[in-house]
Every structure is written in C-alpha cells, then in structure tokens.
C-alpha cells in the first residue's frame, strides 16, 4: 500500500487535469506495476525473441509507444535478472513509460541514422535509455553517455557492455558542463533529469512518505541549469528531449518554459500528440506528454520535445583543448594484424566506420564521430576495448565479443549455457580436433569466449561476470 502524505495529495489534486479523477490516481498508484521488458535489437530481432521466449511460456502484450517493448507475463515464478537471456543482453527490464523519451527523440525528422550522428544522454545511469538509444542508432555514430555519480557510472558501463553497445563514450561530470565543453555539437540530446521521483510510487510505496514541496526547490534549480546546458550543446536544427518521472508542473512544464524565457524564439516545442495511438490522452496544451499512472496503467512520466531553431550565444569562452590524450591511432601494420586476428580466429569483420586506437598495448575501437571531440573534455571510456597485445598474439576482450557479431559461433544448450555463465568448463561428448579460441553462444547471440581443447570447452568468462545462480525455465 502506497504511503501518501496529505501535502502530496493536495498538490496532485491541484495539478490533475479535470478529465482524470483523484480516486483513479490513488487506485492506480496502489496497483503493482505490470512487468515490462525491451528486446535488445543489437542482439536479436523482436520476432526471434518472441519465438524463443514463447516456447518458455512467456506471453507478450505490445507497448504502443515502443516497437521493441512488451508487457510480459509468465506462469513460472522466476527471477528475470538471473536468466541466461537477460545476462547475455537479449532484453532489458525497463518500465514501459521509461521507453517514451528515446522514442520521442528518434521520432520524425531524427531518423537518419549514420556514422556522423552524435547523440548525448546527459544523465544516463543505470542505462535503460542509453541502451535503448544505442539500439535505435543501430550502434552507428556516437552516443556520449554521462553520469554524475561515480558508483552509478560502473553500473552504466556494465549495462552498456552487457547489451553489446559499441558506439558509446562514457563521461562522469555534472552535466552543467556540456554547454561549455561541447557547445552546439550534438544532433540529439536526452536529458532524463534527476527529479523527485513522484511517478515511481508504484515501484516504491515509500517514495512519497516524506514528500515536501519545498525540498524540491534545489532539484528544480538543477533541472533548469541542466536544460540550459543541454540547449547550448545542441546543434541548430537539433532535437532535445527533456523527461522526468516527477508529476509536478514545477519540475516539468515550468522547466521547459524557463528554457523559452532564457533562449526565446530559438526554442520550439514539438507536439508529441501523434507519437503513438492515443498519445493525445496524455498531451498537455504545449504538446508535452504528462503520463499520469491511470492513463496507460504505467508509472508516471513527463516527456517534452524541443527543437533548436537558431544558434544561441555561448555563455563562456571555449575551454582550452586538453593535451596528453593517452590514445593514438594504431599503425597500419598493427591494425592489419589485429583485423586478421579477429577475422581468422572469430570470423569477425571489424566495422569500417570506426578507428582502431592503441594505448599501452591495448587496442580499442573508437566511433569515427568521436575524433573531433578528442581533447574537448575528459572521457572515462570510449568505444570498445578490443584486445590486449601479448608477447605473441592477442587476448580478446569479452566486451568486444558481446558487441561484434560473428557467423562462427558454437551454440550451447540451455544446460551448457547455464554451466558457462557459472564459470564452469563444458565437456564435449566426442573428442575432436582442438580449435583454439571460439565464441560460445546461446540462441545465436554470444555468451563469451572459450578455449576449444578437443574434449571440452575451457571457460574464459571474466571472473567478475561469473554467477552463483542461473534461472532456467
Ligand atoms: C532519472 S535518473 C536517470 C535514469 C537513466 N536515464 C535511465 O534511463 O536508466 C537521473 C540520473 O541523473 C544523475 N544526476 C544527478 N545529478 C546530475 C548532474 N548534475 N549531472 C548529471 N547527472 C546527474 C543521477 O545520479 C541519476 O543517475
């Protein structure tokens, strides 16, 4: 049962549109959320995923605003986070309304996916929307994903790697810096802002126990500073999506109106009333989506789409370029050797629209659209770590195997995949000629690398990814 305090209920009563009832708001806030997932099309098609999971008893109900999103049900009581399919990144457990902002960002004009596209996700962890955006970008172009909290950057990276994202650069800043460091650089920006989280009461019944409107003032100031920074970092003609899981006007509409007050006619609100069938039910007069829990039986959410019509003046001078970037382009001979190693050992062709970079005997793959940004700010991690150079040959990195597709993989059974994810070797029934390093897979998507010794597959899963428990259907 959700814990509301009277101040919160009074504020909702003032804000709720006249066609929605307070009784429904309370009833839906007390109802458990429907379980929803998003299929990761970087690894599997929606049709193949449905086919795979239907055989395991899943039922799918499509989410109207996300072609890859489904409410799912299953008669088996199983922890989804411990399933093979989750661990190998075939799907992400994501609340349905949280799939709205990336859909809005890529709707309409912003559909031209190419190697030069640059997208910024300003407040990214744990990465549900970052990984959704990467899938919408089909791993092309550059996606800069920023997170202010150090511990949450680690979770963000784990999710980006698990989902096979290859076009991402991670940063760790207060996102107020982007307008200054990367002025008018991005085609699209998502600001999924830190907020009071009022919309999440169905997940956390205590979320509003001590709700106090006055305490939200600091959050609103941050949101206003962040949206200004986002607008400065946006190219002319670019699209910005501002979203929160808060319900109040102050954290939502007022923040967007603040942007218009600061930047005037350069700011255009784009109506989302046709984003999907029945989107108009949640639309405000400005064309923003204000999703109350009872409209689509989801968490509360707010989404606004904003276009930048003209350039706006920088607020501070461009900072000096940083020197001492630790990476350099791999020499042609090394790049050729590395490409042959990937091709001959794993059947992987390294993508053409990416640069092979080198740092202290490590080889990385950077998205090409990253090059002009080098030195403009500090990046925690860029692209994919491919391999370490050994005295003789290379040691491939797990994240590269998860992100780069290969036609040459050994598909494991359910039981074998479970053993592999628990760090165990896999015995082979027949002794054959040893094959060296091989990619092992489940449902045609990679699980990791093993050494084929002829009579067994020796497990090479990184220790930190070994699980104690795997849930099998
Ligand atoms: C709503 S959550 C983001 C959820 C994420 N977009 C997702 O879909 O998985 C907001 C995030 O903003 C981060 N944050 C807080 N203050 C920030 C700031 N000044 N700059 C950047 N990120 C900030 C929080 O740590 C939190 O992870």
Automatic annotation (TrEMBL):
GO cellular component: cytoplasm
Record's catalysed reaction(s): cytidine(1407) in 16S rRNA + S-adenosyl-L-methionine = 5-methylcytidine(1407) in 16S rRNA + S-adenosyl-L-homocysteine + H(+)
UniProt keyword Repeat, yes or no: no
Keyword Ribonucleoprotein: no
Residues at the catalytic site: 245
EC number: 2.1.1.178
Molecular function GO terms recorded: RNA binding; rRNA (cytosine-C5-)-methyltransferase activity
Chief localisation class: cytoplasm
Signal peptide segment: none
Stated family: Belongs to the class I-like SAM-binding methyltransferase superfamily. RsmB/NOP family.
Designated name of the protein: Ribosomal RNA small subunit methyltransferase F
Organism: Shewanella fidelis
Name of the coding gene: rsmF
